[in-house]
Amino acid sequence: MGTVFTADDLARLPEIVAADLAPDGGSTVYAATTADGSTTLERPQLWLQQLGGTAELLSASDGAQSAPTFSPDGSRIAFVQDDEDGHGQLAVLDLGDRSVTVLTDFPRGVSTPRWSPDGATIAVTGNDAPLRDPKRPYRVTRPVWRRDGMGLVDDVAVELWTVPAAGGSPTRLTDHGGIVANVAWSPDGGRLLYETTAEPDTAAVALRTVPATGGPVTTVLTSEYLVYPPMAAWLSDGRIVRTTPWNVYNMLDLVVHDPATGTDTPLGSPLTGQIGGLMVFGMNSALHQPALLVDDDDDVLLYVQVGGRTELHRISTTDGADTTLWTGDACVAPLAVRGQQVLLSRTTFADPASLVVLDLADGTEQPASTLDRGWLAELPFTVHELHFTGEDGTPVEGWYLEPVIGQGPYATVLHVHGGPFAAHGYGFSMDDHLLTSAGYGVLKVNFRGSSGYGEEFSKTLVGDWGHHDAGDCLAGLDHVIGLGLADPDRLGSFGLSGGGYMTSWLLTHSDRFAAGIAECPVTDWSGMVGSDIPQVVGRWLGHGPGEGPAQMAEYARTSPITYAASCTTPMLVIEHEGDLRCPVGQGDVLYNALTLSGCTTEMLRLPGMFHVDVYGIADLFGRTERLAALTDWFDRYLKP
């Protein structure tokens, strides 16, 4: 019959949020939201897993523990541990006696520890300035002044520091006034590579290097900040391999930069697929982030999205030759490489992100994490991979999750992914498990604009929202109705972010649906200029905001709020009150407009949550209430 998943099962579904592989490849350390392997906590704790053996809780803490990383000799683990005020501080755990030494006391905390190659120094990002009084007025002058998941940039701006691993005073290396991230030591330990965004006078993102002992900063690359910065890593000879900038839909290429000459040598892109395509899962996606690793042969290891799968690829920095190292009905992402051993995060329809170590020499795998997920072994649905065409004949991929209970045709929910330049795929979704356990079929469509299908497929969405994307979703519904899977009289739509946009658009343009749920939706493009990514909105729409009536007419034409009075379908609006990406006003105007027009509607508000907190380690009660609301709403209108 399959596992019946309910909202309360979040309490027994801990997640891994960060991990590293020991230098000898024999063990892993990971931060997981559990202290017993089976019960969910709201704060991650550190676990040590011996390959082929058992896992042990390293050091229980009342605060969160995150970002663990092994020292070069494997004897110590640097990590970030919350202090009494909830600010993360650099700590080092000795694997010999399990003692923990806290090395910093920054008022705002630190993050992302990185060991120097000799193990004597740890780089962190942090800010030693006093906290701002939140009750006092403040002035905004930055082009990028707030970030979803962070808040005001003035409050979270960090610089690059080094800290003696044996203890001592931190040394500040940078003075950018923005957000420093993605730090990496050069192989000889002489320089640090890092990224900066949200600096006081620019909206750009920059890759930079600085001497490890302090000194002049060198800029490697500057490009427009469009949410996803270039990835970069050192090669053994001091050159830097990086990706080309993202322009909201383009395929990424690899480039080798020579700091000595300032020259860039293109390597091209994989033969198939998309470097760093964004996958949307219904659990924490922290482990499945685009990353660029370099092995001992100076080849690049990264994941490449091919449709609904992500594969592990190796790309030569000599000639750009592309080799697929792992592929299957799953999504993988490399987290660390040690010799021939690669630590992967892997998720499937049945399994949230777990850790495996892949031996590149013989292709064998070993489990590298131990969490109690055996109860998820039996899927509550059967997976149908779909291939159909949009209204103009364009091939489209999707999936239908047929519940194992009941008999078709089924009440069916169209689950629309966000992004929107992202994709559904072979990954775990608690939303899908919940809905299919309740007897609903779930349709997932990678519509026009989705990643992983080529640049032309993605860029079709730019300046033409609500056209081919909506058409592809409706074509998918027609396809599964034709297969006898979906009941045409009991259809629902649901999505978050860009998925909330599509749900709002479909329900204001079609009477095919019996109910819908729009979570953190985009409903008014003019209002989205007030989000934390206004520059991206202009790229998506094809016109910058405020360019005149003709250009702004496109904002109105493609906004669901323009057509709200046409909606007769009951719609639940879910808002995260801390959302800066799709601000709460987006859902507010939709709810108010539906109410004014007499449409059946309700609103669920989740206090404090940022944009995608429901898929992270946010308030467990709020996440549980949100899940329960999904089945409650569809049960009212889709059940016989």
What features would you describe in this structure?
By secondary structure, this protein is an alpha+beta fold. It has a domain at 379-524 and 559-638: 3-Layer(aba) Sandwich (Rossmann fold). It is built from ten helices and 39 strands. The strands form nine sheets. Strands 32-33-35-34-36-37-38-39 form an eight-stranded mixed beta sheet, with helices on both faces. It is globular, with a radius of gyration of 24 Å. The relative contact order is 0.09.
Oligomer class: single chain
Q: What ranges have pLDDT less than 50 throughout 5 or more consecutive residues?
A: none
What Rg, in angstroms, do the CA atoms define? 24 Å
The side-by-side strand order for the widest beta sheet comes to 32-33-35-34-36-37-38-39
Keywords: Hydrolase, Protease, Serine protease
InterPro entries: 6-blade_b-propeller_TolB-like, AB_hydrolase_fold, Peptidase_S9_cat, WD40
GO biological process, one term: proteolysis
GO molecular function: serine-type endopeptidase activity
Which helices and strands appear, and what pairs or packs with what?
Blueprint: E1 16-21, E2 27-32, E3 45-50, E4 55-57, E5 65-70, E6 76-82, E7 88-94, E8 100-102, E9 110-115, E10 121-126, E11 146-147, E12 151-152, H1 153-156, E13 159-164, E14 171-172, E15 179-185, E16 191-197, E17 204-211, E18 218-224, E19 232-234, E20 240-243, E21 254-258, E22 263-268, E23 274-275, E24 293-294, E25 300-306, E26 309-315, E27 322-326, E28 331-338, E29 341-347, E30 354-359, E31 365-367, E32 381-389, E33 395-403, E34 410-416, H2 430-437, E35 441-446, H3 455-459, H4 468-482, E36 486-496, H5 498-507, E37 515-519, H6 525-528, H7 534-541, H8 549-557, E38 571-576, H9 585-597, E39 601-606, H10 620-638
Parallel strand pairs: 34-35, 34-36, 36-37, 37-38, 38-39
Antiparallel strand pairs: 1-2, 2-3, 3-4, 5-6, 6-7, 7-8, 9-10, 10-13, 11-12, 13-14, 15-16, 16-17, 17-18, 19-20, 20-21, 21-22, 23-25, 24-25, 25-26, 26-27, 28-29, 29-30, 30-31, 32-33, 33-35
